[in-house]
Amino acid sequence: MYHKLAELDARREQAVTGPSQRATKAQRTRGKLTVRERIELLFDEGSFREIEQFRRHRATGFGLEDRRPDTDGVVTGWGTVYGRTVFVYAHDFRIFGGSLGEAHAEKIHKAMDLALAAGAPIVSLNDGAGARIQEGVSALAGYGGIFSRNVKASGVIPQISVVLGPCAGGATYSPALTDFVFMVRGIAQMYITGPDVVHAVTGEAVTHEELGGAQVHGGVSGASAFSYDTEQECLADVRFLLSMLPSNNRELPPVRRGGDPAHRRNDSLIELIPRNPNQAYDIGAVIEEIVDDGELFEVHQQWASNIVCGLARLDGHVVGIVANQPAVLAGVLDIHAAEKAARFVQMCDAFGIPLVTLVDVPGFLPGTAQEHGGIIRHGAKLLYAYCNATVPRVQVILRKAYGGAYIVMDSRSIGADLSFAWPSNEIAVMGAAGAANVVFRKEIAQAADPESARSQRIKEYQQQLMHPYYAAERGLVDDVIDPASTRSVLVDALAMLRAKNTELPARKHGNPPM
């Protein structure tokens, strides 16, 4: 038995060490950590349990029969993050460039199946060269198995993709199907076709980073929710995100109460919002004042920044924040903002995270680019997401709330449980100036002094239809509140709604706008 144990130890050491020092050195030369170092950063110390460590491929041809390393280029298993079980599969670029073959894929399938069965999140650490060409269609079928499992697990367990190297071709669709994508600048790229193919087909010369780097997907395409300068920062935030998510859709997110008083007053909010409705301000300052310890974990911070989406805590309970950002494009809704918020609302609803919507929106962005780009169907995605959400939903109207954008931002009319408004709120079909120009167009044009007539009509419209209590008088706002009491009001409202139970009509699934 001692001889057998010595053999086991030697085999295990070889599997953990990897193929060669040369391969490890090459990985470091690329500025990347090894697969084992990444796993150590992800999990609580000493908690990782590897499965199928000695798995090897069975392929032959093209010299594969002479190269059969342990793990087959992917490390799979589970561990704990802040004491809760999390599964992982992580490509080892040192072995076959992290490419996916039949055995490699089966290991991933096993980890995904176990995660779903155990009701635990799964994290993928992507650093692979795509399908293993030498294995042909078997490799492609392996990707199909991953994609189908991504969809099966969607909304059941959290799925997080971390891109730490190349992720090309069909491999990109797995991250696209998961809940969150993390990328590290300088080492991570995602694209369907690489620079060589792009140049051959279109004549366009582009680098890997320009085509699909973290900056591109974080700020242009929106494919990545988070971008970082180092792997250490990235994996630390993966851990933090996991601490705010439930293990599965049957559990609530972990409650972590700190020292921030639940009913702390927000006196600074009284001065924070400018009286001039056209003057910009940073909604981030409002959010920081309201949530626990001023901490917001913002999603897609660099993309569609005219709307802010993120996770925070109120009295220790996780909430999803959706807020217009007046500092960017005056806080209007456009195609990308609607897509970003809709996706976030769906994620929160899937995992039982209550929604707090902070409204200061002048409308949808006008113009042919938006109309031709499909603002109608894209805006409808956000409307659909809110209407379909059964989690507690609380709306707070800070200032402007005009037209269809007001309705879409979780108004009472589409199912918000509670709606509160600050005394500075203006809920209307449109701004007073625009409304006066439409309603009193002929009268203004025929007046002896058109400007004076316009000013008078604008004032009348504001007094009659845009005062803070107009919506409250009609039951569309539950209360007009002191801004300094916003945190306290939200804490009490969400505590009351915590046991909310809403059932949707029986159906296979809805047909959301595309």
Automatic annotation (TrEMBL):
Residues 1-257 form the CoA carboxyltransferase N-terminal domain. Gene3D superfamilies: 2-enoyl-CoA Hydratase, Chain A, domain 1 (3.90.226.10). One of its GO terms (cellular component) is acetyl-CoA carboxylase complex. Keywords: Transferase. Coiled coil: none annotated. It comes from the Bacteria. Pfam families: Carboxyl_trans. One of its GO terms (molecular function) is propionyl-CoA carboxylase activity. Residues 265-510 form the CoA carboxyltransferase C-terminal domain. Belongs to the AccD/PCCB family. This is Acetyl-CoA carboxylase carboxyltransferase subunit beta /acetyl-CoA carboxylase carboxyltransferase subunit alpha. It comes from Nocardia tenerifensis.
